Amino acid sequence: MVTADKKRAAYRALQDRILNGEGAASPEQRARAFSNAGLDAPLDRLIGKVATRPTQVTDADFAAARAAGVSDDEVFELVICAAVGESARLYDAGWAALAEATDSEEAG
Amino acid sequence: MRPEILNSGYGTGTKLLFKLIALFSRQPVPDAAKLVFYRPDFYGSLAKEFTHEAMRGPSAWSVGDRELMAAYVSQVNGSAFCIAAHTATARQAYQDGPKVAAVLADLDSAPIERPLRETLRMLGKLTAEGKLSAEDMRDVLASGVSREQVGDALAVCAAFNTTDRLADAFGFEVLSPEGFEAGAKYLLRRGYR
What we know:
The structure holds two protein chains of two kinds. Chain A is mainly α. Helix content of chain A is 77%, strand content 0%. Chain B is mostly helical. Chain B has eleven helices and no strands. The two termini of chain B are 22 Å apart. The chains are: A mainly alpha, B mainly alpha. The interface between A and B is large, with 52 and 56 residues.
């Protein structure tokens, strides 16, 4: 699994950067956006849409964040954290199913 | 794009680069390309590296297969920009537009081999439902797909679940057919780096 593992490591490096590197938003806010949990209104609405129904994001969602005092750079980071977070959960779920399928195959 | 900094927040050198790209390609710079130039240290640099590795790095899947996976995942997500971009790229990579159209219209009847069909089905289910069972994965392996190929397909799926979300959240402008064809040509020549 050399090439597939290398790809997964590259995705982990991206996750680590956006969560733990320097940013306009606090690491705590970025972690909340990544896990789509624990954000206050109005950010919870924007971030929830990015994670689960991104085609429904509107200009009004961005305007509400700005009106609440969230800067464009913070919004930029939090949207990215939400997109990467949801994708990371899908990626992990795929690998978990693969591990389960192949472990039982090897055992059987 | 939204927020406004994604339209205006670039340095002089980057703005000049955008002008040159537009001049030589005779097409506006796609928002997907602009995004990775905004504070590249935060997202763009590592995202490009991962996406390039997933789409052009070593794999038993061809470039056309991986572009088709990108188009298929984007279709499940309903992401207009990415569907058009990767449909065009898959079409050019395979030199076979009808095959790509058939997969996106009806996976079950499309003229592709069983391993690719079962892999696309698995990626579609994971994207739509957020989970997969061991049974789903056994179906893919039983069709002749190796574990390594499953891992490679999951990387494509992760890359495009990320990009689809950003395209719709940041509001990437949908290009003309000529714009998407030019973008596809670029992605096949240069990749995602």
